[in-house]
Write a structure and sequence with these properties.
With about 140 residues, this protein is of the alpha+beta class. It has a single domain, classed as Roll (2,3-Dihydroxybiphenyl 1,2-Dioxygenase, domain 1). It is built from four helices and eight strands, in the order E-H-E-E-E-H-E-H-E-E-E-H. The chain has an eight-stranded mixed beta sheet with strand order 2-3-4-1-5-8-7-6. A hairpin with a 5-residue loop joins strand 6 and strand 7. The radius of gyration is 15 Å and the shape is globular. The structure holds zinc ion (ZN). The site of zinc ion has 6 residues, from strand 1 and strand 5.
Amino acid sequence: MQLDHIGIATRGIDEAMELWIKTLGLGLEHTEEIAEQGVRVSMLSLGETQLELLEPLSADSPVGRFLEKRGPGIHHIAIRVDDIRAELAKLKTTGARLIDETPRIGARGCLVAFVHPSSAGGVLLELVQHQLATAENFINERNLF
Ligand code: ZN
């Protein structure tokens, strides 16, 4: 296991990039929109890990509601796992509150699932399993979700 990325809620990715990219010199890996989650995402490389800048596409999206309540800042941390379904099953047996009972497709075509902060020491925790984003996987996961 390792830290995959840290998610940071921003009001605007372009504005946030002034600091992270222009001033501090991090590299932009890519930007994408995840319509299902109502969010625009930019991944910045930071050594072994990444920063994930999040910008809501609407006020009533999860990140939009987070900004409304708490303002910009650290939104979640993401841990990379080899078998996300096994980790979810393990968490379930401990009674952990899972936001996603089954994995869904996140940024970069990864399988992701969120654990509620009430079960993770006040931290919104994301589990990430990297996978080859084959068309077949993609379709299967969509259907599962
Ligand atoms: Zn994330």
